[in-house]
Amino acid sequence: MSRVLIVDDHAFIRRGVQAILHSHPEWEFSGEASNGPEAIRLVGELKPQIIIMDVSMPGMNGIEATRLIRKSHPRVKVILLTLHNSPELIRSALAAGASGYLLKTDAERELLRALNVVVAEGTYVSPGIDADVITKIVSDQSAGIRQLH
């Protein structure tokens, strides 16, 4: 059973994600946060394996919170949940250490698939995102990795 922390500034989104998880006992709801700093604090207290986090939150956004969480808790997986289908945001999310990028428009039918991919050490990207965009991002990141060596 994997413990899941839900982070979104809108309570109805947090409740919706909880409702999806509730009917699947392999996913244990460990808690919720309404902003990035609260999420960072709760990771240390609740010890989730996976965080489902909104990108756009007031104060600290989900990408910056992901960067800080992955720095202090590298084993914690983060799936960013968003309305934004922007190549720049996807690139930033993956560079910050996110293991998944899920569009809110795909969440109801894709959340469990995203969780399964991420818990199996994979990277999940919403099917609503253009495949050419993903290919370019992966190619750019691979080129950057090769240049580091």
Summarize the structure.
It is built from six helices and six strands, in the order βαβαβαβαβαβα. By secondary structure, it is α/β, with parallel strands linked by helices.
Protein topology:
Elements: E1 2-7, H1 11-22, E2 27-33, H2 36-46, E3 50-54, H3 62-72, E4 77-82, H4 87-96, E5 100-103, H5 107-119, E6 124-125, H6 131-148
Parallel strand pairs: 1-2, 1-3, 3-4, 4-5, 5-6
Helix pairs in contact: 2-3, 3-4, 4-6
Folded structure, characterized:
The radius of gyration is 14 Å and the shape is globular. The protein contains six helices and six strands; from the N terminus they run βαβαβαβαβαβα. Helix content is 50%, strand content 20%. The protein has a six-stranded parallel β-sheet, with helices on both faces. It has a single domain (2-148), classed as Response regulator (Rossmann fold, 3-Layer(aba) Sandwich). It has 149 residues and is an alpha/beta fold.
